[in-house]
Design a protein that fits this description.
It contains 5 helices and 8 strands, in the order E-E-H-H-H-E-E-E-H-E-H-E-E. With 175 residues, it is an alpha+beta fold. The structure holds coenzyme A. The site of coenzyme A has 21 residues, from helix 2, strand 5, helix 4, strand 6 and helix 5.
């Protein structure tokens, strides 16, 4: 497991001037990540996990938070609310066995969608992946997820159908 990449911790400014802290996730963030997922709307949860769930099962929660920062890098966007740190977005990539390509996923709290958090997270993730020599990034998106398909297009991702799965679109781009 690689060391916690502290150099990726950075305060970022959103479209309206609000600030968020973006940093790599830590194993100790499990409760915060679970709160983030519970707080998503059912539509957003379904769009992200492609399954109906109210919260993450323990093994999935551990998988998403206890990452090695090398094959699996996850970033969270955090704000302070009533003296507590609240997660309002997350993005991650998981490296393919080839080592040259990775798969991403991104999610923003419903109340924070349209704020710029998704872009901050994805640009940071793409920059890190590129700086580590990863050549391409791809993701699987529900064909009905127009918001994500539009956002991915704005980020320069091309789209293609997934063979034998008309409900899913693969988005991909060179880094
Ligand atoms: C998909 C998702 C991550 C996109 O996040 P988002 O918050 O909509 O994206 P952004 O924060 O970049 O906001 C984009 C909006 O800001 C607008 N925007 C862009 N630049 C701007 C600026 N400088 N000033 C003001 N607004 C701006 C865009 O026009 C866009 O608005 P529009 O949709 O009305 O055109 C989010 O909808 C989500 O979490 N969905 C549920 C989970 C999911 O589907 N994940 C994908 C699985 S891979």
């Amino acid at each position: 497991m690689a060391d916690y990449p502290v150099e990726l911790e950075r305060e970022r400014t959103l479209f309206d001037g609000r600030k968020v802290l973006v940093r790599p996730i830590r194993a100790g963030d499990a409760a915060m990540e679970q709160d983030f997922v519970r707080h998503l709307s059912p539509d957003s949860r379904y769009a992200r996990f492609m399954a109906t769930l109210n919260e993450l099962p323990a093994n999935k929660l551990r998988y998403l938070t206890d990452v090695d920062y090398e094959h699996h890098l996850a970033l969270v966007a955090l704000v302070q609310h009533d003296g507590e740190t609240v997660e309002v977005g997350s993005a991650r990539y998981v490296l393919d066995p080839s080592g040259t390509s990775c798969e991403f996923a991104v999610t923003v709290d419903d109340a924070w969608q349209g704020s710029g958090i998704a872009g901050v997270l994805m640009f940071t993730l793409m920059d890190v992946a590129r700086s580590r020599g990863i050549e391409t990034m791809d993701g699987l998106v529900l064909a009905s997820n127009h918001k994500m398909l539009k956002f991915a297009r704005q980020l320069g991702f091309a789209q293609e159908r997934v063979p034998d799965d008309p409900g899913t679109i693969r988005v991909f781009r060179k880094l």
